[in-house]
Description:
The protein is an alpha+beta fold and 594 residues long. Helix content is 40%, strand content 20%. The strands form seven sheets. A five-stranded antiparallel sheet has the order 2-1-5-4-3. The protein has a five-stranded antiparallel sheet with strand order 7-6-10-9-8, sandwiched between helices. Strands 14-17-20-13-21 form a five-stranded parallel sheet.
Amino acid sequence: MSRREFLIINFHLTFYPPSFKILFMKTKASSFYPFILESIAEGIVVIGLDRKIIYINEMAERLIGMPEMSIKETPCNEVIKTDLCSTNCPFNSNINNVSHFNVNLHKNDGSSILLCLNTAPLRDEYGNVIGIIENFRPMSALVDVIRSLEKNNIILKEEKSRINSILNSLADGVFTMDKETRITSFNEGLERLTGLMEKDVLGLPCKAVLRGDICDTDCPLSLTLKNGYGVSRCRERIVNKYGNTIPVYISTAFLKDITGEITGIVATVKDASEIENLQKELNERHRFSNIIGKSKFLQEIFELIEIVSNTDCAVLIQGESGTGKELIAKAIHYQSQRRDKPFIKVNCTTIVEGLFESELFGHVKGAFTGAIRDKIGKFELADGGTIFLDEIGDMPLSLQPKLLRVLQDKELERVGDTQVKKVDVRVIAATNKNLSHEIKSNKFREDLFYRLCVVPIEIPPLRKRKEDISLLVNYFLEKCSTKFPTRQKILKVSIGAMSAIMEYDWPGNVRELENAIERAYILSTTNTIDIESLPPSLKTPIEGNESPRSNSGVERFLIEEELRKNKGNKSRTAEALGFSRITLWRKLKKYQLT
Length: 594
C-alpha cells in the first residue's frame, strides 16, 4: 500500500467509527472511500508533514481553480493561498488541534473568495501526527445575508462582530446511510447538532434519528433514492435529543462502489438557525414600535419617523379614526432624545370648553370658582418631553391664539396668574379632520395650522394598504393568546375567513380589525378562525352560498403569503390553508406560482 493510500484510509477512519474499519477492509474500501470524499460538497485536502499536498478532491480543485496535474506533490502554500500562511499556519501552532477559521482564498486568476476553513490532525494507527486534513466551503450565502442587513440598516457594527464569531464556529454535519435508510456513519458535527452519539444511532433508520418534519412527505433522502439524483439545500426542521426543533439545510448525493453501483447516500446537514435569525431581523423592518406593516406607505412613514425623531419640529399626524395616530406620536417620542422625559396625551374632544385653558396651562388658587388650589397644566407636566394634542381640530377657536403663543415663544401663563413660565415642550398634534376645510369654515386658525404642520404625516386607511392585513392578523392573534391564556390557542385563520377579512373595507381601520380578531378568538371553538366567528359586517355571501364571495386576487395573495411564511414548504402551506396537496398544486399552477 502506498503512503498516499495509507493516509487516505486513516483520514477516513478519523471521521468514521472503528466498526466501519472492518466494513472498509471487507468491501474494497480503498477504492470505495474516494467516492465518499468526492460526494461531499466541500473542498478536502490532505497535507503531509513535509507540507506537500497528498490528496485533493474535485470540489477543492474547483474552488482553488487549478487542475489536479499541477497540484500533486506541490507545497501547500503554493496552492492554498490564504492569510493563514503568513499569520497562523496550522503547522506552526495548531497541528495537534481541530481549528476553525474564516479566511480569504486567493485564486490564481487574481480573484478571492471567503471560506470557512477547518483543520484537523491526521494520525496513524499509533496516534502519531502524520499530516493535516483541511476542509473548506464558500461562505457566500451567509455573506450575502450580512450585506443585505447592512444595506437595510438593520445590523450594527457590534452585531456584525457577534455574527462573525458565530460563523467561526459553524461546522456541517455529515452522515451516510444504506439503501434501506439505515445510518452507517454520523460525524462529530452532527453529534454536536443533535446531541446524539454515533454509537447510539448506527443501524437505526434515519427517520427515527433526525425526526424531520418532512420525513413522511418530502424526505430528501427518499427522494434521492426514488428519483436517481441528489438534492441540494432542502429546507427541513429536525428534532434534537432534547426535543428542540432545529432548522437545517440538507444536501444529498449517492455513494457508489468502484463498479458504479449505488451503495447508499451521503448527506450534509447545515444548521440554518443563524440564517433564520438574520431573516427574522430583516422581517423586524415590518414592525416598528408596535406599528405593524410592510406596505410602501408604512415603510415611508417609518423612514419619516426616523428623520423627525431627533429634531424638535412640530408634527401634524392626519388620518382616519383607528389608523394608529397615537402609535406614530409615541414612536416619534420614544425614538427621540426626549424619550426619558414625559409623554403627555391630551384628547381635545373630552375636555369641557370652559376648562380647556386650565387643563392645558394650569391655574392658581382662586382664579375662578372651584379653584381651591394651584394646578399644574399639561404643558408644564410635559416640560422637557412631548405633548400629544389628539383631535386638535376640536380645539375651541378662542383658545387657539394662546396655544400659538406657547408654540412661538415657549412660554405660558397659568389662569389667574401674571407670572410667565418658560417651557421646553415638543408638540405633536393629530386629527381625523381636514384642517384646510376647517380653516375655510373659520373653525381653525391658519397661522396655528402652519405652526403645527411643520412636518405632516398622513396615515393611509387600512383599505389602501391591504398587504398589511395578514401581518396585523398574526400580531393580534399573538396578542390574544397572551390576553386569554385559558382559551384554546388559535393557530390559523381559514382561507374563507381570511378572504372575508381581505375584502372588507374596514371603515374603523386597525382598531376595528383588532376588535374583530379578538371577537373571533373568543367565539372560535377550534384552533382555527372560520367565517362564522367573524362579525356579521364581514360576512358577504352570494345568495344561497354560505362562503364569502370568491376573489382570485385575494386567494392568490393568501397562497403567496403562506408560501413565504413557510419558506416554500408546500406541505405546511397546504395544511395552513386547509387544502390537500393536490388542491394546492392545482392552484399554484392556476396562478402561475410554480
